[in-house]
Amino acid sequence: MRHNFGAGPCILPQEVFKQAAQAVLDFKDGLSILEISHRTPEFENVVEETTRLIKELMNVPEGYSVLLLQGGASLQFAMVPMNLLPEGKTASYIETGVWANKAIKEVSAFGKANIVASSKESNFTFIPKDFTIPEDSAYFHFTSNNTIYGTEFFDFPETSVPVVCDMSSDIMSRVIDVSKFDLIYAGAQKNIGPAGLTVVIVKDEILGKSGRKIPSMLDYNSHIESGSMYNTPPVFSIYTAMLNLRWLKSKGGVAEIEKENKAKAQALYTEIDRNPFFKGTCAVEDRSRMNVCFVMQNPELEKPFLKFVEENDIEGLKGHRSVGGFRASIYNALPITSVHTLIELMQIFEEKHQ
Question: Which residue among 182, 190, 247, 264 is the active-site one?
Answer without folding.
Answer: 190
